[in-house]
Amino acid sequence: MHLSEITDRIEKLSEQYAEVYGIETSAQWALLKLTEEVGELAQAHLTATGQSRDRGRSAEERAQDLAEELGDVIGMCLVYARLQGIDPEQAVADKWFRYEGDVADPDAPPAT
C-alpha cells in the first residue's frame, strides 16, 4: 500500500470522526490534534519505558499502546499534510534526502 492510499483511508476516518463529533476540520484543527497526539505518545513512551506508573498494563499492552500512539501521530501528520496540500513523500524526500552523502565516511581515503 502506498502512502497516498493510507492517507486516503485515514482522511475518510478523520472526516467520519469530525462528523460524529460536530467538528469542522481545518489545518489548524489537524495541527492542534497532532499536538495532542504527540503528548499522548510521550505519555505512552514514559509508561512503556518504566518512567511513569504502569497503569496496571502489562509490558505487552504498554508496547501496544506506544505503537498505537505513534500511529495516531503519523495519521494526524498525514491529515495535516493533506489539508495543507503537501505531498508528504515529497516533503520527506526534499527535507531528508538532500543530505545523503553529506556525512564523510570515516573509512574513506582522504580526498586529494
From TrEMBL:
InterPro entries: MazG-like_dom (IPR004518). GO terms for molecular function: hydrolase activity. The keyword rRNA-binding does not apply. Keywords: Hydrolase. Residues 31-93 form the NTP pyrophosphohydrolase MazG-like domain. It comes from the Bacteria. Pfam families: MazG (PF03819). SUPFAM superfamilies: all-alpha NTP pyrophosphatases (SSF101386). This is Phosphoribosyl-ATP pyrophosphohydrolase. It comes from Brachybacterium ginsengisoli.
